[in-house]
Amino acid sequence: MTLVHNWHLGRTMEYPYFESRPKQQFAAVFNINRCIACQTCTMAHKSTWTYSKGQEYMWWNNVETKPYGGYPQFWDHKILQLLWDNGNNPMEWYTSAEDMDEKKAPYGLYNGDTIFELAKTKGLNQMAVGYIPDDKEWRFPNIYEDTAASEKVNYETEAAKESSELPEHKRWFFYLQRICNHCTYPACLAACPRKAIYKRKEDGIVLIDQKRCRGYRKCVEQCPYKKPMYRGET
């Protein structure tokens, strides 16, 4: 492990490789305020990239309704639970003036363990903590679409049964658009024992070299966003 600066966290963190930045960084911006979850982007992406045999369950682009929805189901709850149950440091943000820096810490300072740091402190034989979703969790990409919740609802087991009442809006949901984040410090890249994953120098896109891949699924396990997907047909 080496130390790299993560401006999202506002601090240095441990990562298996030295910091290496691309010449430019690809980015996609979704306007959450304008999105109505029509799924046009989802279907366009599906019909272009993942229409072949063995890719039936794959949705590289998806729009899910939060707080219930998720593809794979409860991907965010599960990775946060792993950090919460096993972390040595509290998952807290410090946002005082002294913790903020326009360039190095625009969001303040995150004190909790990262998936890389937790794997090291727990002595796990892997680069990051994670899990592999089961088949059922991949099966319903639009589960709980447009299902509202309140602060008192158990997100995993209950659904809202009452309509909103003015002037208080006790029921709420929002749409979250998701693609591969092409991370600055990709967990999938760190996890791969074959070194089949790389970040392209010219645009920062994270790619998988199919010739080197042997299907160990370490990338699926250790990516917190579950965007690498395994195709058994190849």
Characteristic terms for this protein:
8 strands, alpha+beta, two-stranded antiparallel ribbon
Could you list the spans in which at least 5 consecutive residues all have pLDDT below 50?
Answer: none
Mean pLDDT: 91
Query: Separation of termini?
Result: 32 Å
Q: Write out the strand line-up for the largest beta sheet, numbering strands in chain order.
A: 1-2
Helix and strand sequence:
EEHEHEEHHEHEEH
Short description:
This protein has 234 residues and is α+β, with helices and mostly antiparallel strands.
Commentary on this structure:
- Keywords: 4Fe-4S, Electron transport, Iron, Iron-sulfur, Metal-binding, Repeat, Transport.
- GO terms for molecular function: 4 iron, 4 sulfur cluster binding; electron transfer activity; metal ion binding.
- Its cofactor is [3Fe-4S] cluster; [4Fe-4S] cluster.
- Its main location: other.
- Residues 170-202, 204-233 form the 4Fe-4S ferredoxin-type domain.
- The chain is α+β, with helices and mostly antiparallel strands and 234 residues long.
- It has one domain (1-27, 37-159, 170-234).
- The protein is built from six helices and eight strands, in the order E-E-H-E-H-E-E-H-H-E-H-E-E-H.
- The strands form four sheets. Strands 1-2 form a two-stranded antiparallel sheet. It has a two-stranded antiparallel sheet with strand order 3-6.
- A hairpin with a 4-residue loop joins strand 1 and strand 2 (11-15).
- The longest helix is centred in the middle third of the chain and has 12 residues, at 75-86.
- The chain is globular and about 45 Å long.
